[in-house]
Amino acid sequence: MVAAKPTPLHPVGDEDSSKRRQIVDGARKVFLDLGFDGASMGEIARSAGVSKGTLYVYFADKSRLFEAIVEEESLAQGRIAFNFDPERDVTTTLMDFGQAYIQLLCRPGGGSATRTVMAIAERMPEVGRRFYDNVVSLTIAKLAAYLEVHVTSGDLEIGDCQLAATQFMQLCQASLFMPFLFQAAPAPTAERIAEVVGSATRMFLAGYQKKRD
Question: Is the dihedral of CA 78, 110, 9, 1 positive or negative?
Answer without folding.
Answer: positive
